[in-house]
Design a protein that fits this description.
Strand content: under 5%
Largest sheet: none
Low-confidence stretches: none
Radius of gyration: 19 Å
Order of helices and strands: HH
Length: about 70
Amino acid sequence: MMQEPARTSQRKRLSPRGVAEAAASIVIALGVVMLMQPLSLTLYGWSFPMTLVGTVMFLVGSKLPE
């Protein structure tokens, strides 16, 4: 019988930078969706602050180590 070759690549670890950038991207996307929706004035009112917070999160997260 042939043995299965050893796996050389390990699982990619989650880096703080990757997690922060992914979370910031989700917040930005939610802010943009809130901005474009026609149903709620409250959501529209919170869309700009949410997009701004996501942008700041992305800027700070991009400075974290990988």
